[in-house]
Amino acid sequence: MTQTTPDVAVIRMYAPREQIYAREARGTFARWRWLCVWLTQLAFYGLPWLHWNGRQAVLFDLAARKFYLWGLVLWPQDLIYLAALLIICALSLFLFTAVAGRVWCGFACPQTVYTEIFMWIERQFEGERSARRRLDRQPWGAAKLLRKGGKHLAWLLFALWTGFTFVAYFTPLHTLAGSSVSLSLGPWETFWVLFYSVATYGNAGWMREQVCRYMCPYARFQSSMFDQDTLIVSYDARRGEPRAPLARARQQDSKASGSCIDCSLCVQVCPTGIDIRNGLQYDCISCAACVDACDSVMDKIGAPRGLVRFTTSRSMQPQAVQQALAPRLLRPRVLVYVALLALVTAAVGWTMLQRSPLKLDVIRDRGVMAREVADGQIENSFRLQFMHTEEQTRRYRISVHGLNGLTLVTPAELLLEPASTRSVPVTVRLAPGQGVHGAKRISFRLVAVDAADGPVQVEEKAMFFIPR
Fold it and tell me: DSSP label at 206?
C-alpha cells in the first residue's frame, strides 16, 4: 500500500520584482519633465554657492542655532514659520492633486527627478532599452564589466556630490569643502554625506519604481483627493478598442477596429511598468510618458492625437457631454484649497513683514529679592535677554516705564552685534513714597538710537515688587 503526498500550493505574499527596461520618451511632456529636472537641480546644487552679506545665502547653521535665508535670520523660537511653510506645502499638494492628480510625483518629486537623471546616465553607458536587455542577458566579460562598472561609478560620484550638497545646507560650503579635501570631516558630516549618498544611489539607481509602489505613502492616500473632475492620464477605450496591429487594422473595416494598434510603446516608456490601457492604477505617477509615446504613434499612422491623454473620469464616461475645461477645474473643492492657500500665504507674508528684528525677554533675578536701599529707594533686579536678528550692529537705549519715580541704575545704552544674543543685568529703583506694597506692572522699552531706516523698538512687561 502506497501513501501519496498531497499537493502543496505555495502562495507568495510578495511578488518578485520584474526588471523594468523603460524606453526613453520624447515629446511635450518629456520636455516639461526635463525642465523641472533642470530647475530643481539648479536650485538644489546652486543655492549653497550663493553669498549674502559675506556669508552663505541659504544656511541652516544647527551648531549656532541660526537659519539664514538671504537677508532673513531665523532662530529656534521662529519654528512657527517652519510649521506655516509645511502647511503651505500641504495645501499646495492638495490643490495640485485635486486639479491634476499625481502631477507632483511625475514631474517634481525628488524620487522621480533623480530616477530620471540616473536613467539618463544608464542610457549613456548601456544604450537604449533593447541594448540594455541584450547586455543583461550576455555573460560577464570585459565589455559588460566596463559598461556596468562605468555606470555604477558615475552613479556613485553623482550620489556623493548630492550628499555633499545636502550637508552644505547645514555646514558652510567652504568649510565643508576644506574639511573634505584635508580628510578632516567631523563624524556627523561624514555620516550624513554617506547616508544621503547611499539613499540617492539606492533609491534612484536600484529601487526606482519600488519606492513609488511600496514606500511612498502618497500613493496610498492620493485617491482620497481625486474626484470625477480630476485630471488623470487616461486611455480612451471607446476610441481605442478593439485593438489590432496596424497591418490587420488597415485590412479590416475602420469600424471593426479601434485606433490602438497594440504597439505597447505606452508600456515600454512607463517608469513603473504598468499598462495604462488597463485603467487608472495607484502605480501611475502621471509622468505622461505614455501620452508622448502614444501621440508619436498617432502622428505616424495619421490618426488624431489624444488616445492616451490627460482628461477626467467624467469625460471618459459613455454618456459624457463635452464641456469647457475651466468650469470643471474651478469647482468648490479647488476653490476652497485656493482660498486657504492664499489666506495662509498672505498671513505668513504679513507676519514676516511685521516681524521685529529685536526680541526681548525679561527675567527676574531670583538671587536678589526686592529690597529697600539706604536712601529709602526700592530696588529690583532683572536680567534682560536680547535676541538681535539684524545683520548689522545696532545701538539701543533702554528705558523703564509704569510707575512715577522709576529710574534705571545701570547704563541706559548697549551695543548689539549682528545676529547675536546677549544677556544684560539691570537694576531698577523706585523713589521713596511712590507706591504701596505689592506687585506693580512695569515695562522695559528698547529703542534703536541709530535706526536710519525707521523706528526700531520693542517693549516687554515685568513685575516690580514693593516690600512692606
Answer: I
> Which residues form the domain of 65?
28-224
- Per-residue burial over 411-420, b if 16 or more Cβ lie within 10 Å, else e, is eeebebeebe
CB 31 within 8 A of CB 291: no
Q: Grid coordinates standing for 345?
A: 500665504
Question: Where are the extended beta strands (E) located within 171-288?
Answer: 231-235
Strand segments (E) across 353-456 = 358-364, 371-372, 378-388, 394-401, 406-408, 413-416, 420-430, 438-448
pLDDT at 1 over 60: no
Q: Is 124 within the bounds of a domain?
A: yes
pLDDT digits 0-9 by tens, 393-421: 888 888 898 888 888 888 888 888 888 88
* pTM, to two decimals: 0.82
Task: Please write down the HEC assignment for all residues of 406-436.
Answer: EEECCCCEEEECCCEEEEEEEEEEECCCCCC
In a domain, 393, yes or no: yes
User: Rounded to whole angstroms, how far apart are CA atoms 225 and 98?
Assistant: 6
Q: Which residues contact 155 (CB under 8 A, 6 or more apart)?
A: 118, 121, 201, 204, 205
Query: Which DSSP state fits 57?
Result: S
Q: How confident is the model at residue 374 (pLDDT cuts 50, 70, 90)?
A: confident
Q: Is the pLDDT of residue 111 over 90?
A: yes
User: Is 252 part of a structural domain of the chain?
Assistant: yes
Arithmetic mean of pLDDT, 20-33: 93
* Domain final residue, candidates 224, 246, 269: 224
Calpha distance 464→401 (Å, rounded): 11
